[in-house]
């Protein structure tokens, strides 16, 4: 495990490695510049007031000391009465000045300002899998509320680019580590997301996927029990398997094949739910369980082989849009900000049994392919491939429990969410060039 928060004694190291970061992220930095120049006020999903947008120069002869002076100088412009820090020691002395904002870096050239909460209001919140698609958006929400966020991630499918805008914020810590290893920390809440979510990635090493869901969940529950933290598990609609009940309600027990290619994920999550239940009843741990239905949005892994990312990437490149089977199977898709709001409402409410979080708007896969093709004005043809094993025929959440218990329902329409996702992948393609989407078989995440 490598704690790499710049907030503690590692601060000097974090600053002196900036040169390396700049080279590692040069293409992504270009992407950020394009985003920043195009949109003016946004990085990822975090909107920054214009007054805080101060860009660091891209200059390969920029030395570490110069970088320190530049960062301190830009920040101190906001604090007209503070003296600017020219040395490392002065920077440490004036730490208070940075207490609620990041130091701009070449990889994230915007000072990320967050609200100042009193130490009583500010919670220490751990997100396992926080460098992934959903976890990084959740981190944005919790950081923007002024909490301290600790991310634990093994970077199997997570990407540093999803979180690098927080790397130099004093309330943010990254632990590169695996949930299958026990960890000792003091936290108030744990959002336990760590687990690859796309079929090609969770099938790449099924035994590891099972360990992540079982040993990993056991470890996180042990931590929650020791420190008295609330814990939320991101379970999945996959626990309903190929459902014989439509739409799916939380009291449906599911129709899961225990021996198929998807079972490492489906059964792993089912056991994880059972563990949550056992710790709640035997050890009084305060648990929350979200059963998440298909979710999409910016920061999805471009090679995760999921419906939305594949269709958008294929359409934008005018490559064949590949559907498995006749495309008559149905799916419902929710936009990521709705999911993050639902997870937050669940954690902060009192309801301790499983809750579906999804958008009930249902599409056939073929309809969805046509919608994306039209929205991207693509010349792609739609190509039918062989149906994959155990692919569910119908999937649609009944969300009446979430409405009743959490006062939650999705706000973003599928088309609105798709428009944002298409723009995101357009930027990714601009910065990376060609992307060949992952097919149906097991595969290692490719960056
Ligand atoms: N996105 C969806 O449509 C969806 C649907 C249902 C459930 N979920 C659940 O939501 C959670 C997040 O999904 P996502 O879409 O962001 O997936 P993702 O693959 O983008 O994120 C998962 C993160 O967990 C990390 N991780 C994986 N194994 C780990 C381990 N052993 N130790 C530490 N970190 C590990 C990965 O590196 C990655 O950062 C997952 O638990 C998933 O099962 C997602």
Automatic annotation (TrEMBL):
Catalytic class of the enzyme: lyase
Coiled coil segments of this chain: none
Major location (coarse): cytoplasm
Regions that span the bilayer: 31-52
Mode of membrane association: Single-pass type II membrane protein
Gene Ontology CC annotations of this record: Golgi cisterna membrane
Pfam family, one: GDP_Man_Dehyd
Cofactor(s) this protein cannot do without: NAD(+)
The organism's place on the tree of life at top rank: Eukaryota
Keyword Nucleotide-binding: no
Protein keywords: Cytoplasm, Decarboxylase, Golgi apparatus, Lyase, Membrane, NAD, Signal-anchor, Transmembrane, Transmembrane helix
Gene3D superfamilies assigned to the protein according to its UniProt record, in alphabetical order: NAD(P)-binding Rossmann-like Domain (3.40.50.720)
Pathway: Nucleotide-sugar biosynthesis; UDP-alpha-D-xylose biosynthesis; UDP-alpha-D-xylose from UDP-alpha-D-glucuronate: step 1/1
GO terms assigned for molecular function: NAD+ binding; UDP-glucuronate decarboxylase activity
Record-stated family: Belongs to the NAD(P)-dependent epimerase/dehydratase family. UDP-glucuronic acid decarboxylase subfamily.
Name used for this protein in its record: UDP-glucuronate decarboxylase
Domain NAD(P)-binding: 126-421
UniProt-listed Enzyme Commission number(s): 4.1.1.35
Catalytic reactions on record: UDP-alpha-D-glucuronate + H(+) = UDP-alpha-D-xylose + CO2
Organism: Cylindrotheca closterium
Record's subcellular location: Cytoplasm; Golgi apparatus, Golgi stack membrane
GO biological process per UniProt: D-xylose metabolic process
């Amino acid at each position: 495990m490598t704690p790499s928060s710049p907030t503690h004694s590692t601060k000097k190291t974090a600053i002196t490695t900036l040169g390396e970061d700049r080279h590692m992220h040069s293409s992504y930095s270009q992407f950020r510049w394009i985003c920043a120049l195009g949109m003016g006020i946004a990085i990822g999903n975090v909107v920054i007031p214009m007054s805080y947008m101060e860009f660091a120069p891209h200059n390969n002869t920029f030395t570490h000391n110069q970088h320190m002076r530049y960062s301190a100088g830009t920040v101190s412009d906001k604090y007209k009465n503070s003296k600017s820090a020219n040395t490392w020691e002065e920077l440490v002395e004036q730490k208070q000045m940075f207490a609620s904002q990041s130091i701009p870096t070449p990889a994230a050239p915007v000072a990320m300002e967050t609200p100042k909460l009193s130490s009583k209001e500010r919670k220490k919140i751990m997100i396992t899998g926080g460098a992934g698609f959903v976890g990084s958006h959740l981190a944005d929400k919790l950081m923007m509320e002024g909490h301290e966020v600790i991310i634990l991630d093994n970077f199997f499918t997570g990407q540093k680019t999803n979180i690098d805008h927080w790397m130099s914020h004093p309330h943010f810590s990254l632990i590169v580590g695996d949930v299958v290893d026990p960890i000792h920390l003091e936290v108030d809440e744990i959002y336990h997301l760590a687990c690859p979510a796309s079929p090609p990635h969770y099938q790449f090493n099924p035994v590891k996927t099972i360990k992540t869901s079982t040993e990993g969940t056991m470890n996180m529950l042990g931590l929650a029990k020791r420190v008295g933290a609330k814990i939320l598990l991101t379970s999945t609609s996959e626990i309903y398997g190929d459902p014989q009940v439509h739409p799916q309600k939380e009291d449906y027990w599911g129709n899961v094949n225990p021996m198929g290619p998807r079972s490492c994920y489906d059964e792993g999550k089912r056991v994880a739910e059972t563990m949550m239940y056992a710790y709640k009843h035997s050890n009084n741990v305060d648990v929350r369980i979200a059963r998440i239905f298909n979710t999409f949005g910016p920061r999805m892994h471009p090679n995760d082989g999921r419906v939305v990312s594949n269709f958008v990437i294929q359409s934008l490149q005018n490559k064949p849009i590949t559907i498995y089977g006749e495309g008559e199977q149905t799916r419902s898709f929710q936009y990521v900000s709705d999911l993050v709001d639902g997870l937050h409402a669940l954690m902060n409410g009192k309801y301790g049994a499983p809750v579906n979080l999804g958008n009930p708007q249902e599409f056939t896969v073929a309809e969805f392919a046509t919608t994306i093709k039209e929205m991207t004005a693509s010349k792609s043809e739609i190509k039918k491939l062989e149906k994959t094993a155990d692919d569910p025929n119908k999937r649609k959440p009944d969300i009446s429990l979430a409405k009743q218990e959490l006062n939650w329902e999705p706000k973003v329409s599928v088309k609105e969410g798709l428009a944002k996702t298409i723009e995101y992948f357009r930027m990714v393609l601009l910065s990376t060039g060609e992307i060949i989407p992952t097919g149906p078989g097991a595969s290692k995440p490719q960056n």
